[in-house]
Known about the structure:
Elements: E1 5-7, E2 13-15, E3 26-31, H1 38-51, E4 56-61, H2 66-76, E5 82-84, H3 89-94, E6 101-105, E7 111-115, H4 123-135
Parallel strand pairs: 3-4, 4-5
Antiparallel strand pairs: 1-2, 3-6, 6-7
Amino acid sequence: MPTFRRPTVQGATFDSAAASVTGRPMVVDFFAAYCRPCQRTLPALQALHAARPDIGIVGISLDDVPEGAARMIDRHHLTFPVVHDGGHVLAGRFRVVDLPTTFVADARGRIVGVADPELAGSEDALARAVAALDRHQ
C-alpha cells in the first residue's frame, strides 16, 4: 500500500507509516459527497470502525473542497480520520478511477482486498474485503 502523510479534515495528521498505524491492518476508503454509493459505504465503515478497533480506517475525500468532506463527516458521524485529497494526488497513487473504492491491507501493508466499485457501497462487499484480511493474518 502506498504510504502517505496528510492533514486530516478533523485537524490532526494521518501518517500511514506512524507506529500507531504500522503493524495493524488498514482500510483505506476513497469517497466524495457527490457519490451516491459512498453514502452507503461510509456508515458501513463507521460500523466496522466501532466493531473492529484492531483495524485502522482512513477515509480519503475526493471532494473539490474540504468543506464537502467535513459535511460527510458530520452527516455520517465519522470518528475515523478523513483526509481531503482535493488535487487527487492520493487517488493517483492508489490508481483510483471509480468511487467508492475501498482498499484493505494486512498488517504488513500488502493490499489483500479491494471492494469492487460496483458493489463497494454494500456492507456485503466490505465484509468480503475484511474477510480477505482475516484470511491473510
